[in-house]
Automatic annotation (TrEMBL):
Belongs to the MOG1 family. It comes from the Eukaryota. Signal peptide: none annotated. Pfam families: Mog1. Gene3D superfamilies: Mog1/PsbP, alpha/beta/alpha sandwich. One of its GO terms (molecular function) is guanyl-nucleotide exchange factor activity. Keywords: Protein transport, Transport. It comes from Linnemannia elongata AG-77. GO terms for cellular component: nucleus. This is Mog1p/PsbP-like protein.
């Protein structure tokens, strides 16, 4: 496994161990206060931590699926989103968490395009089709349009720490591209990740995720 660095989140209130190939993007673009984002540019992978108000509309058993669906909506991947499994992580595996904490591990896949690339590609194809149709000399002629998909197939590993006393859901998400589209900007700068390696170290990352200051949650 690669060299691991301890990262301080939210001013040191939470710590997590991440491979050194992951770096924060806060110096590149603005990140919302409730998020911490780290990326591995070479493999187009990301680790995202979010502190959210407990989603009361989702039961404990369904909270991981709820947050996965929210992610699919944010990614415009509602029609290309699959949950593979949801399991419970118990206190024996994660002994530093409060006894009333509910911790769930979800594995799933989504087809996701970066930077609105899918919408731009569709617009370009539509304009090409209209231009081709307009230049066709005969109405009996048929313009042919090749459909290209800029979306990448992403393996998503998500852990939801549900903290009822703090009325908080902490969502830890790891995104690994399994297949990068030829039409994606990532194709030129990144390569697909090793899913076996990723699953192994993600469990170590989850085990290292530690709240150092519970005052972060205000109570």
């Amino acid at each position: 496994m690669a060299t691991v660095n301890q990262q301080e989140l939210y001013g040191g209130a939470i710590t997590i161990n991440l491979p050194s190939k992951f770096g924060t993007i806060s110096h590149v673009r603005a990140v919302p206060d409730h998020q911490e984002v780290f990326v591995n540019v070479d493999e187009d992978q990301s680790v995202i931590v979010e502190i959210l108000e407990l989603a009361a509309e989702a039961s404990d058993d369904n909270c991981a699926a709820f947050h996965f669906q929210q992610l699919a909506e944010d990614n415009d991947a509602e029609d290309a989103s699959t949950i593979q499994s949801v399991s419970v992580l118990n206190n024996a595996e994660l002994p530093t968490w409060p006894a009333d904490a509910k911790i769930y591990l979800l594995l799933g896949q989504q087809r996701v395009a970066k930077f609105n690339e899918q919408q731009r590609l569709q617009q370009q194809q539509q304009h090409h089709h209209l231009a081709t149709a307009a230049s066709t000399p005969s109405s009996s002629s048929t313009a042919t349009t090749t459909t290209t998909d800029a979306r990448n197939l992403i393996q998503i590993m998500m852990v939801v720490f549900r903290l009822p006393r703090q009325q908080t859901d902490i969502v830890l998400t790891y995104n690994v591209p399994l297949k990068i589209s030829d039409s994606s900007s990532s194709k030129q700068v990144a390569h697909e990740g090793d899913i076996s390696e990723a699953e192994g170290w993600f469990r170590e990352v989850v085990g290292s995720f530690t709240v150092r200051d519970w005052g972060l949650f205000g109570n």
